[in-house]
Amino acid sequence: MGRVVMYASVSVDGFVADAHDRPGPLFDWLTGGDVPLDDSGVLAVSQRSYDYVRPYWDQIGVTIAGRHVFDLTDGWDGTPPSGVEHVVVVTHRPAPEGWDPGAPFHFVDGVEAAVATAQKLAGERVVEVAAGDVGGQVLAAGLVDEVRMDVVPVVFGAGKRYFGSVDAQHLLDDPDVVIPGNRVLHLRYPVRRSTGG
């Protein structure tokens, strides 16, 4: 099975959006460089960011997101973001009325079922979990292999927390990637596994 990676751009004080679900400047680094990140003509980053982000994006097979993010993005108009093949949506509700059943979106109740579904779909590719409430639940369930953060130099003061409502301690290993880019610091932490005993 592929790795399960919790990922998002985040403020220095740990928020993935402000209190009104707006990302503010969190994605400015994705348009502030001179190296195209994809074929959209919109995303361009520094060479250092490209060398880190592009290979990672190419490994992602499935993204797991919550229903709130799905609704905020209008379900990405039925097309998974960033070239991802499938999206697994964690929700207690069915697909929206009129939703195309052929779209590569899977509506699943609970994070354990979401990860299991995503891993079947992804095979050996990465399962990416959007940070926030769902990401925090997947971390708390012990199902995250690594945490990736694109830390942006802004302080929100309040908003949607990177780890959602996690209220217990979870140890990460030392970062094995620390890469400064333009207006961003890329960090990658393996998740420390409990050895029991």
Write a structural description.
- The chain is an alpha/beta fold and 197 residues long.
- Strand 3 (35-36) and strand 4 (44-45) form a beta hairpin.
- It has 4 helices and 12 strands; from the N terminus they run ββββαβαββαβαββββ.
- It has helices at residues 47-59, 67-72, 111-122, 133-140; strands spanning 4-11, 15-17, 35-36, 44-45, 60-66, 86-90, 105-108, 126-130, 146-152, 160-161, 177-181, 184-190.
- Strands 7-6-5-8-1-9-12-11 form an 8-stranded mixed β-sheet, with helices on both faces.
- It has a single domain (4-190), classed as Dihydrofolate Reductase, subunit A (3-Layer(aba) Sandwich), CATH 3.40.430.
- It is globular and about 40 Å long.
- One of its GO terms (molecular function) is 5-amino-6-(5-phosphoribosylamino)uracil reductase activity.
- One of its GO terms (biological process) is riboflavin biosynthetic process.
